[in-house]
Design goal:
Blueprint: H1 8-20, E1 21-22, H2 26-35, E2 40-41, E3 47-49, E4 62-65, E5 80-82, H3 84-99, E6 104-110, E7 118-124, H4 127-136, E8 150-157, H5 164-167, E9 174-178, E10 183-187, H6 193-206, E11 213-221, E12 227-231, H7 238-242, E13 249-251, E14 254-258, E15 261-264, E16 268-272, H8 282-287, E17 294-296, E18 319-323, E19 335-336, E20 339-346, E21 356-359, H9 361-370, E22 372-375, E23 387-390, H10 403-417, E24 420-425, E25 428-429, E26 437-438, H11 441-452, E27 461-463, E28 470-472, H12 485-488, H13 492-511, H14 516-519
């Protein structure tokens, strides 16, 4: 037992939650949110909410307590430190804040594998945040509970302003994680994604010690039991492509890869809804129209209360949070066998990467550590041309350890499983953003189906002279010109210039990992051009 367990303020908060709302179901939580004017119902019964100034995560306001456990293990170049005494003060202030307010408590699970599981208690002042996390994590009874499930406590006080002088923060926002005690304090932000990503960050710190590779990916399973993983940053199609009626979904965002297979950390989906259409993504569209789904920052038609998914006046990062159980095709128990396929997704706005390529193990680790996609003009203030974005392990903000730790584990897992690894570009062809066109989703699905179905095993491949990638020369029902991006450009010289630029950005990014990233975990340089 720790001092936190005996904290009188904590017990006051727990008593308040027990009296008001402990493990409340969606109807009363929705009623409370509407009563507090924190949300409104759509025409179809989803709960529409807004997150104010924060419409996305605030990675620069995330802190890890620097203590004897974390000091030698955390990659401090990527994580801000908080002194133990500052965290204690923040925790005390957050508990005092909740003690004077209605409290909503949810007791949930993270980790579908009972051998690698957390018992997560969330205490929040907001009914809709309680509904959000109930949608996103695993509800009691949905999977077997492990006898040794580690306890995680999240104190969520979004209307509390952190104090830099007292708490060591940059400003009024704090997402602070005590890895030794598995306690999280969130203050000064209404963005609900901070809750779910805090659980993931704890998992990413502890999982390697238990022999589990934590992964920011989606996963599904084919009719023959063939598990596939989909890595990709926001906007690359990770959720869209893994939602396939013919391949039941294990999960859409956070997983572990143990010696026995893959398991989902969550029990829900947090899908982007920007420009969502029923035709392109019917399963996700249907989920946005159900009672209990939480829609974040989605603009509603003022007369009919119908979501307008094309309206990005609040943010491009509009989201829907709903339980996995509402989808038509879900893998039982949130688990799958050892992966047979690993897919890295990138939305290359430079328009130079091939739409599909097979990777060697070394290239797979290289692209895993690189975590490349590109921002396009107009999505952020000041972005006027494509900008390369590199996020180690496709989730650097949530990876407390050095990327080489995760890269080495991936190399070992690929060797043990023999999984085929693919790079799929869901971005542009025929030119970069503004000149070329985006590869249509039907073509990407055809390429993905060919890769997962084994169609490309015997297909001859060419080696891309600049990126060293093995690109199939032909895929059924796909224009062969598309497979060679240089041929899709009006000017081959312009392609060469753009491709050389991207290759240089890859090398520049990878250099920051130092020699340690390449010896055990990594590449014998996947990019051929040096």
């Amino acid at each position: 037992m720790t001092a936190f367990d005996h904290n009188p303020l904590r017990h006051r908060v727990e008593q308040a939650a027990a009296a008001l709302s402990r493990n409340a179901l969606p109807p009363p939580l929705i009623a409370e949110a509407i009563g507090a004017r924190a949300g409104e119902l759509t025409a179809d019964g989803a709960l529409s909410v807004r997150t104010g100034a924060f419409t996305g995560r605030s990675p620069k306001d995330k802190f890890i307590v620097r203590d004897a456990l974390t000091e030698p293990r955390v990659w401090w170049e990527n994580s801000a430190a908080m002194a133990p005494e500052q965290f204690e003060q923040l925790l005390e202030d957050a508990l005092a804040h909740l003690a004077d307010r209605p409290v909503y408590r949810q007791d949930l699970l993270a980790g579908a594998d009972p051998a690698h599981q957390y018992a997560v208690t969330v205490m929040t002042e907001s009914a809709w945040h309680a509904l959000f996390i109930r949608n996103l994590l695993i509800r009691p009874g949905e999977v077997p509970r492990g006898e040794q499930a580690a306890q995680v406590t999240i104190i969520h006080a979004p209307t509390l302003s952190a104090d830099p002088a007292r708490h060591g923060t940059r400003g009024e926002t704090a997402i602070a994680l005590d890895m030794s005690r598995n306690i999280v304090v969130i203050a000064g932000t209404l963005y609900a994604g901070e809750i779910k990503k805090s659980v993931f960050s704890l998992f990413n710190f502890h999982a390697p010690q238990a022999g589990v590779l934590p992964m920011h990916c989606s996963a599904n399973v084919g009719p023959d039991g063939d598990t596939a993983l989909f890595f990709g940053l926001s906007g690359t199609g990770k959720t869209t492509l893994s939602n396939d009626p013919a391949r039941p979904l294990i999960g859409d965002d956070e997983h572990g890869w143990s010696g026995s297979g893959v398991f989902n950390l969550e029990g829900g989906c947090y899908a982007k809804t920007v420009r969502l259409s029923e035709e392109a993504e019917p399963e996700i569209f249907a989920a946005t129209r159900r009672f209990g789904t939480v829609l974040e920052n989605v603009v509603l038609d003022p007369e009919h209360h119908v979501p307008d998914f094309d309206d990005v006046s609040l943010t491009e990062n509009t989201r829907a949070a709903y339980p996995l159980s509402v989808l038509p095709s879900v893998a039982p128990g949130g688990v799958g066998g050892l992966p047979r396929s690993v897919v890295f997704l990138t939305a290359d706005a430079f328009g130079v990467l091939p739409p599909i390529a097979r990777l060697t193990r070394e290239q797979a680790v290289y692209h895993f550590l690189s975590g490349y996609t590109a921002k396009v003009a107009g999505t952020e203030r000041g972005v006027t041309e494509p900008q390369a974005t590199f996020s180690a392990c496709f989730g650097a903000p949530f990876m407390p350890l050095h990327p080489s730790v995760y890269g080495k584990m991936l190399a070992e897992r690929l060797t043990e499983s023999g999984a085929a690894t693919w790079l799929i570009n869901t971005g542009w062809t025929g030119g970069g953003y503004g000149a070329g066109k985006r590869i249509d989703i039907a073509t990407t699905r055809r390429l993905l189906s060919a890769a997962l179905g084994g169609e490309l095993e015997e297909v001859p491949a060419r080696t891309d002279e600049r990126f060293g990638l093995a690109v199939p020369r032909a895929v059924a029902d796909v224009d062969p010109v598309l497979l060679d991006p240089r041929r899709t450009w009006a000017s081959e010289a312009a392609y060469d210039e753009a491709a050389d630029r991207l290759a240089g950005l890859f090398r520049q990014n990878f250099a920051r990992f130092g020699a340690g990233a390449g010896a055990d975990a990594g590449p014998r340089l996947a990019l051929a051009a040096e």
